[in-house]
Design a protein that fits this description.
7-stranded parallel β-sheet, globular, 6-stranded parallel β-sheet, OB fold (Dihydrolipoamide Acetyltransferase, E2P)
Length: 725
């Protein structure tokens, strides 16, 4: 049970069922509304003036609209003897016209006809269609207005927003079939009435610094605006609330981290790190050396490192992380590398052992004196191997322990855990990072890796408790990747040409990835199992074709990847299990089937699996959905540039923050309901500055509003980030 210290947070976090009843609350769940605060932050998409008619010439077919118009004429067609009839209504804005049609039994048509008399004004909500070359609305929801722009009538749907507007403004809300906009408006009115005039959760100095209106005034301004200017001011206050709550959470995390003491870890001049550097078959980039120097300096401090390392796919983050880990091992500590999937954990294990060679031999005869054990621990590790891995971790013989969520188990103990590396942080929660940290005698240093380029505003919001380093320079030898969009609907011959191009690539001694968005075939398209079988039998007959997906047994996945890496397979048909960590330098071509099923960043990350050897790469994006403008724009954007940071910005614009922050995947509530990390970067920056001042003024978090804000943010974020599967 959460304890709220302010009346504001207490009332806003009350279940919406307490105000509206269980039935309405259940309907609101489809809108991700669970609390009174969720409801009051469910804002109108736009406001209509009850005294201004909509310009009908601006309507487009397929558009969902809310139209303010006058009834020009009505007529009844058909009917009689209890047979269905229809009411045809013509709306006008004074210049143009719009047809509206209702179908129903005679008594319903008569009711609609009475409501929609000539000359009356109303709001009509529906989807614009076309009939006989004319635009029309079919069965729209509607309410009627009086001369002052107020809702008239006593039926349920009409009385609901009667008190919304104090100047003729009517808010049009995101709605559902069971909860049309006017019903949502009534829910908001009741929620507003339930607030007991609570004090503002922020101190006066915060309100002055942010130049925003009081919170209760803001809620009234967005749901019962006196003007559009007032509605905008109310919205700005609610945006600031979300930004400040997030930034306060990050600021206090940073402050908390600074109070802990870590054991400084200085690399030995003649230890593992030096031995690795001496045998690396490639030179490090200037960026890798610069980031490494930063990590070494922070590892040598008594303050624990809290750093995010981001970079393009193939920028060499693994080598940088490995060098930092070996510095810690040189200093007598152990390292844990936490990966989100078994495939990625196994890939890290194989990559690190390959880079280290006999330095990863540990107790083996013939290993160098400075060697250490590299240990793998996942959920599917056989019992005997698991016992051995646990023993090496607990004894300290395992200098580097690589694993999945299995590392978080109570049975996993370390002799001296000094450094934690977390790959793909967005798959893990802060509490999971804490569980691993608790296995150390002193606070360990932490490095977070991500191969997804992150816009600055996103980094401030999601990773605001971490310092950020970026690897933008690709290692020497990385080849250019030519990306081509293939229109499978209009150019089916191009698809056949794509498969011939695969055969040609293999004929030159190279290998190919084929990526499919689903395992099993369905109405949505072919799956990896069936496509692999078809290609083996027909288009790629004679080639060695393998198949890989997440539902295969672990040993089957391992053997397939090993065979592909060894060159025993020409083509690997796979799902996105190859998205991260799979490194096959001889793979020079990728075909992505049903490419419209992937986001921009995911497509960019997938194609980063090729072009890692001495030959240029080619990536074919095959789609039958290029008629959809969003799809067409997305795929051609990927084909136009290899700049991951530019694509990340575009991806965020298209997908919005739900996917980025995890709410869409988890089904939980996001701590960001209104804030756009791209559109509102200025508000986020202001909130970060105020949050920094808040920590300086109140380092112990005794301000009730600050405490409640952090509690609420962490409560919501835990549901969004936690993925235990």
């Amino acid at each position: 049970m959460v304890t709220w210290w302010t009346q504001s947070f207490r009332e806003l976090n009350a279940p919406v069922a307490d105000v509206l009843g269980a039935r309405t609350a259940k309907d609101l769940e489809k809108l991700r509304i669970h609390t009174v605060g969720d409801l009051l932050r469910h804002l109108p998409r736009r406001y209509l003036s009850g005294t201004e008619l909509t310009d009908l010439a601006t309507l487009s077919e397929g558009e969902h609209v809310a139209v303010m118009a006058k009834v020009s004429r009505t007529s009844v067609v058909g009917g009689g003897r209890n047979r269905p009839s229809r009411l045809e209504v013509t709306l006008t804005d004074g210049q143009g016209y719009l047809a509206v049609t209702f179908f129903g039994r005679e008594h319903l048509v008569e009711y609609w006809q009475r409501e929609l008399g000539k000359g009356v004004r109303g709001i009509f909500v529906g989807k614009v269609g076309r009939f006989r070359e004319n635009l029309q609305l079919t069965h729209p929801e509607f309410v009627m207005l009086d001369a002052a722009g107020s809702i008239v009538g006593s039926s349920e749907k009409k009385q609901l927003i009667a008190t919304m507007s104090r100047s003729g403004l009517v808010g049009m809300y995101p709605a559902t079939a069971k909860l049309p906009t006017w019903k949502v408006a009534e829910c908001c009115r009741l929620a507003l009435a339930s607030l007991a005039g609570a004090d503002d959760p922020w101190p006066d100095w915060v309100l002055d610094a942010a130049d925003v209106m009081p919170q209760t005034d803001a809620f009234a301004a967005v749901h019962q605006p006196r003007s559009l200017v007032e509605a905008e001011a109310g919205t700005q206050r609610l945006l600031f609330d979300e930004a400040l709550a997030t930034q306060l959470t990050m600021a206090y995390r940073r402050a908390d981290a600074s109070t802990h003491t870590a054991i400084p870890r200085r690399a030995a001049s003649d230890g593992l790190l030096a031995a690795l550097d001496a045998r690396l078959p490639f030179g490090l980039t200037a960026g890798q050396l610069e980031v490494s120097d930063t990590l070494f300096a922070e590892l040598n401090r008594s303050r624990p490192m809290q750093r995010l390392l981001q970079g393009e796919v193939g920028a060499g983050k693994t080598v940088v992380a490995l060098r930092a880990m070996l510095a810690v091992v040189d200093a007598g500590g152990q390292c844990a590398l936490l990966a989100p999937t078994e495939v990625l954990a196994q890939q890290h294990y194989a990559t690190i052992r390959r880079l280290m060679g006999d330095l990863a031999g540990g107790r083996l005869l013939g290993s160098p004196d400075v060697a250490t054990d590299v240990v793998l621990l996942t959920g599917s590790t056989p019992a005997a191997a698991k016992r051995e891995a646990l023993l090496r971790a607990a004894s300290g013989e395992g200098g580097i322990v690589i694993g999945t969520h299995a590392l978080l188990h109570d049975k996993v103990q370390f002799a001296d855990l000094g450094f934690i590396v977390i790959d793909e942080q967005h798959r893990f929660g802060v509490e999971q990072r804490g569980v691993l940290s608790d296995k150390a005698s002193a606070r360990p240093h932490v490095l977070v890796l991500t191969a997804t380029p992150i816009p600055r505003s996103v980094a401030m919001t999601i990773f605001g408790d971490l310092d950020v380093s970026t690897l933008a320079e690709l290692p020497a030898g990385r080849q250019a990747i030519d990306t081509v969009v293939v229109d499978a609907k209009r150019r089916p011959g191009w698809v056949e040409r794509a498969w011939r191009r695969v055969v040609e690539e293999v004929g030159q001694g190279r290998q190919v990835f084929v990526v499919v968005p689903r395992i099993k075939s369905s109405d949505e398209g072919i799956g990896v199992v069936d496509l692999a079988a078809e290609l083996s039998a027909i288009q790629l007959a004679g080639l060695q074709v393998g198949m890989l997906h997440g539902q295969l047994p672990t040993d089957a996945k391992e053997s397939t990847m090993a065979a592909f890496a060894a060159g025993e397979l020409d083509v690997l048909v796979a799902t996105t299990v190859i998205e991260v960590g799979v490194d096959v330098p001889n793979a020079t071509m990728m075909v992505i089937w049903d490419a419209e099923r992937f986001g921009i960043s995911q497509l960019h990350q997938l194609r980063g699996r090729i072009g890692r050897g001495s030959h240029p790469g080619v990536c074919l994006l095959i789609s039958s959905a290029l008629d959809e403008q969003v799809v067409n724009d997305r795929l051609h954007a990927v084909s136009a540039t290899n700049d991951g940071f530019a694509l990340a910005e575009l991806d965020l614009v298209q997908r919005r923050e739900g996917d980025v922050l995890g709410a869409d995947q988890s089904g939980g509530r996001s701590s960001l309901r209104l804030l756009s990390v791209l559109e509102h970067a200025d508000i986020i920056t202001l909130a970060k500055s105020i949050a920094t001042q808040a920590v300086e003024r109140d380092p112990d978090r005794t301000t009730p509003g600050f405490e409640d804000a952090v509690t609420a943010t962490e409560q919501l974020a835990s549901g969004d980030w936690l993925e235990l599967s």
